[in-house]
Hints:
Order of helices and strands: HHHEEHEEHHHH
Low-confidence stretches: 1-13, 19-42, 225-230
Strand content: 5-15%
Helix content: 40-55%
Mean pLDDT: 78
Distance between the termini: 60 Å
Radius of gyration: 23 Å
Amino acid sequence: MGCSPMKAVRELGLERRETVDSALSINSAICWKLRVSGATHSNGHSIECRMNSENASGADNQQGRLESYLSGFADGEGSFSIGLQQRLDLPFGFQLVPEFRVSQNAERASILELFKRVMGCGRILENDRKRENDKTYVFVVRRRSDLIEKVIPFFRRNPLISEKRTTFDIFAQVVGCMSCSEHLTWSGFERLVHMVFQMNGNGRYRKWSLTDVIGVENPQRLYAEHPLRV
Length: 230
């Protein structure tokens, strides 16, 4: 009998979690092996060179397993979203705000520090400072250059395995188009908004409807044919 998809996902998650401690301790293990090599072999130089090569390969493998673990964690606890923020000072009346985030309870927030270190970007914030009973923290990346250069390549190397991958693909495409300034013309903005409304439940959780943003309900549409000046 075949393994069920849910069982396969759970087993993959367990395998990923088992890599974290060894990945974080790889540097100390390498140092210990090199000390033993120098103390026990008269031809230590050649042995040390060989061990350096093996350790470099092992370190690369550990890094890959750590990235795989973080990708799996984000598959369950992360989100890729494009916010729609009303900005009446902009010609189209709305701004597209891309964001990647991972949430975790305070007692396990160390995983967020690991995301920040491995990705080399982002911030860790309290999820909702106004709610005293909310003890959740979030790792957040909003800077477009970090999304383009770090976050999106990370998940290209370490693909998601759930349906969230479809959302990520749209997210990556929208952010890429924004980096090419396509959102600064009405035709480009309208196309990207349609893509955004295909993400995360097809927009049913959004404050603004599609008509609010690009339909006749948007009073800024009169000026829609004029590109933004940046």
